[in-house]
Design brief:
The chain is mainly β and 188 residues long. It contains 2 helices and 9 strands. Helices cover 8% and strands 39% of the residues. The N and C termini lie far apart (124 Å).
Length: 188
């Protein structure tokens, strides 16, 4: 009545006909979205500034700058980046030398090798990753303000110049004369 062979063939196409529309490491390349993802393959070398309006996976070599402020950037295991990266979310599996600035989060995976500065409100660093640099997780940081507020950084409370009185030439508030002590007798 039923031919078992025909049922099997209808359910699963032959291996040579299968095509994958997802990146090599879909679980590692970030959250699943319907957005397009560009891939810089392992044999590609780019020197300059990359800008775009889609997610990016880097498996090749990139020098310069990567600016995808509303999207995610993934440095794959074969990726070798010597650039500053500004993105919504950054995932690192490969080699990175430069500044990572993300408005949402930076994820450093076990295979990552990073030398540089990370500025993001959320940072995760897996056990075994190699990192040499500094991390700034202040959401009001100057680095995040410059990149994501169009170059205008907002001063934090207590650190702006307006909070301090201007110093006079000798460093004292009164100018050239030292301020009188509170218990000094009045001069005639």
């Amino acid at each position: 009545m039923f031919n078992k062979r025909e049922q099997t063939d209808e359910r699963s196409p032959a291996p040579e006909n299968r095509k994958s529309d997802s990146p090599r490491h879909p679980a590692k390349s970030g959250p699943a979205t319907a957005a397009r993802t560009a891939v810089i393959g392992p044999s590609i070398e780019i020197d300059g500034t990359l800008r775009g309006d889609e997610d990016l996976v880097i498996e090749g070599r990139v020098k310069g700058a990567v600016e995808l402020k509303k999207h995610s950037v993934t440095i794959g295991e074969q990726g070798d980046v010597a650039a500053d990266i500004h993105a919504h979310t950054i995932y690192v599996d490969g080699s990175m030398d430069g500044n990572l600035v993300a408005s949402e989060r930076v994820v450093i995976r076990q295979s990552a090798r990073i030398k540089g500065t990370i500025a993001s409100p959320r940072v995760s660093l897996e056990d075994g990753a190699r990192f040499n640099g500094s991390i700034d997780m202040d959401p009001d940081s100057e680095a995040l303000g410059k990149v994501f507020a169009g170059g205008k950084s907002t001063p934090r409370h207590g650190s702006g110049a307006a909070d301090k009185p201007a110093a006079k030439p000798n460093g004292q508030p009164g100018g050239g004369k030292p301020a009188p002590a509170d218990n000094a007798p009045p001069k005639p």
